[in-house]
Write a structure and sequence with these properties.
With 122 residues, the protein is of the alpha+beta class. It has helices spanning 2-11, 18-39, 42-56, 70-85, 101-106; strands at residues 62-67, 89-92, 97-98, 114-120.
């Protein structure tokens, strides 16, 4: 990981300025996130979960999913909207639920979290 981090910084031309260093850190973070998502097959696992949720819930059952990046959130939002249009869900979250300022201060990672929910039709 150190070698990849160093290569990313060199490739981005991190010249030591505060902005360049911050940009290189963000690029490294996103690169490692993309690798983790690919290696763990996180998006295909999420897609599989979203397909079986309606069959796994009883009438009136509730599901809530927390996402941490836009790729996940887009998939959850789309699946819930399609399920609502198809009559699988009687109710879905109109807006995402975000962490409060206090929680974000206590846990930096909470800033990226988005919660969406749905209720299975009766």
């Amino acid at each position: 990981t150190d070698t990849l981090d160093r290569l990313l910084r060199q490739g981005l031309g991190a010249d030591g300025s505060e902005t360049a260093v911050a940009d290189a850190k963000m690029a490294a973070r996103r690169t490692f996130q993309a690798l983790r998502i690919a290696v763990n097959q996180e998006l295909s696992s999420l897609d599989a979960l979203l397909r079986v949720i309606p069959m796994s819930l009883g009438p009136g059952g509730r599901v809530a999913i927390i996402t941490f990046h836009s790729g996940e959130d887009r998939r959850v939002k789309k699946a819930f909207q399609e399920g609502h249009r198809a009559g699988l869900y009687s109710e879905i979250a109109r807006d995402v639920v975000r962490s409060r300022v206090e929680e974000t201060r206590a846990n930096r990672r909470a800033q990226a979290a988005k919660l969406r929910w749905a209720v299975k039709a009766l």
